[in-house]
Amino acid sequence: MPDPKPAQSAHARPTSAHPRIPTLPKPRLATYHHDRAATQTSTGENRLGEKFLQIQTDDGVMETFVAYPKEGGPSPVVVLYMDAPGIREELYGFARRIAAQGYYCLLPDLYYRAGRIRFDLSTMTAEDGREMFAQMRSLSNAKIISDTEGLLAALKSESLAADGPKGCLGYCMSGQYIMSVAGTFPDDFRASISCYGVGIVSDQPDTPHRLAGKVQGEMFFAFAETDE
User: Fold this and answer.
1) Least packed by Cβ within 10 Å: which of 45, 99, 117, 218?
2) What is the tens place of the pLDDT at every residue in 16-60?
3) Which fold has domain 7-224?
């Protein structure tokens, strides 16, 4: 989906009942300011590794793209939850940029229940749009919590993924899911970001905001002042 106009943000800190807890460990890699510099050495060698994991969940096998630093690991984990258009090269690029900062970044395909669904935003038709929103509506907070449970279990076998505090990031459709997983797995997720997320507060039985009191880490919510 198109990037929003300049955003306003709300930074929610834990209440006094939940003392402030440090967020993710400092990555072992330096901060890079250019994509090529972030991913390649001076001799052109790729700094990053990437692969696909086939993660078993209660509903099937969830393909998950992983980007990670080849050196300096194990690296702290960040889960990138996709937006409604789903898995595409743009999101692979996001994962690589996160990995280039020193994180083990996972990008799960949340539409796996319907097969390997891919949308091309450059050629999307009205029919494609209807299908995309149908796929979006097929998901729920309960399903993403279940998927994340499978993902966390799979991470135990990944030697380059560090144990301990993890982060998560959700865009638009998935902005609600970061609240759900942070409240359900508070010992795992200690830093969570929602970018122009939807459905965070609703009248549905699984509305994420009811889990706010269980969150043990820090959360950041960004919303567009004018979202076109």
Assistant:
1) 45
2) 444 444 445 554 433 333 344 455 544 445 889 999 999 999 999
3) Rossmann fold (3.40.50)
